[in-house]
Specification:
Elements: E1 2-13, E2 16-28, E3 33-37, H1 44-51, E4 59-64, E5 67-68, H2 74-84, E6 85-88, H3 100-110, H4 116-126, H5 142-154, E7 160-164, H6 172-185, E8 190-194, H7 198-203, E9 206-211, E10 214-220, H8 227-240, H9 246-256
Parallel strand pairs: 3-8, 3-9, 6-7, 7-8
Antiparallel strand pairs: 1-2, 1-4, 4-5, 9-10
Helix pairs in contact: 3-4, 3-5, 4-5, 5-6, 8-9
The structure holds adenosine-5'-diphosphate (ADP) and magnesium ion.
Length: about 260
């Protein structure tokens, strides 16, 4: 679960402190998909950066899986981010001197994980980029760079994936491909994304609307059944279909509790 409590962020501009986020409090459940929308300058990117531990708040707290990000020193925070969080930046932020494959295998290498290249290649294949492994970012289209960025963010199997306007710089066909890939990726994690695209925002379970650095409204698009209810349904379905094998039952319950 992600929880923000009275979150605030000021930026100092010249002599003055400018408050760009104030008193933001909400929760995101495990496995939930939440979109963040609002006018340009309303604080969406600032909020996403704080949630992902890329930036530190002026006031308030961010708890990820019960852990206060601000209580962690840089080393612990970066280790936590590396293993638990994926982030897709608005301008991709691929390393220009590395190939697509090297960009995607980098987070695995940083964690000394074995089989980094194989896993990265498989992830790029899933993104439809099997024939682009050895291309450098400048040799890729915007849509392809975004897919490499999503591959890099999800190759570590993070429990939370953040994305800042993932379709913002893409034509509608590339945007649709990226949306499909994100919807596929979200089956395995919590997804929090900033978007100006109403169709994408509407796919989320809930939409958090920001205005002037505050939560203006939280819109529920899909009612998520509670963990308990989902487990009950899964058990019932298992019994109904005559499945008595414990293994099957365990699998259903595990899926339902996501
Ligand atoms: N590093 C910074 N220094 C000073 N002001 C900033 C900085 N980053 C963002 N801001 C200001 O904070 C406000 C919110 O920015 P941002 O979170 O990027 O909005 P959004 O993503 O909703 O467009 C804007 O007014 C922006 O100019
Ligand atoms: Mg922004």
């Amino acid at each position: 679960m992600i929880e923000t409590i009275g979150l605030g962020r000021d930026y100092v501009r010249g002599e003055r402190a400018l408050t760009v986020l104030h008193d933001v409090s909400f929760k995101v459940e495990d496995g939930e998909f939440v979109s963040i929308t609002g006018p340009s300058g309303s604080g969406k990117s600032t909020l996403l950066g704080l949630l992902a531990g890329l930036d530190r708040p002026t006031r308030g707290r961010v708890l990820l899986a019960g852990q206060d990000l601000n209580a962690m020193d840089e080393t612990r925070l970066s280790r936590f981010r590396g293993s638990r969080i994926g982030f897709v930046f608005q301008n991709f932020q691929l390393v220009p001197t590395l190939t697509a494959l090297e960009n995607v295998s980098l987070p695995l290498r940083l964690q000394d994980q074995s089989g980094a290249d194989e896993r990265a290649a498989r992830m790029l294949e899933r993104m439809g980029l099997a024939d682009r492994l050895n291309h450098y970012p400048t040799q890729l289209s915007g849509g392809e760079m975004q897919r490499v960025a999503i591959a890099r963010a999800s190759v570590t199997s993070p429990s939370i994936l953040f994305a800042d306007e993932p379709t913002g710089n893409l034509d509608s066909a590339s945007g649709d491909t990226v949306i499909d890939l994100l919807m596929d990726t979200r089956k395995n994690c919590t997804l929090v994304l900033v978007t100006h695209n109403p169709a994408l925002a509407g796919l989320a379970d809930r939409e958090i609307r920001l205005r002037d650095g505050q939560v203006e409204q939280i819109v529920v698009h899909k009612k998520r059944s509670s963990k308990k209810a989902a487990t009950k349904v899964a058990r019932k379905a298992t019994r109904k279909s005559g499945q008595t094998s414990t293994r099957k039952g365990k699998t259903s319950r595990k899926k339902a509790s996501r």
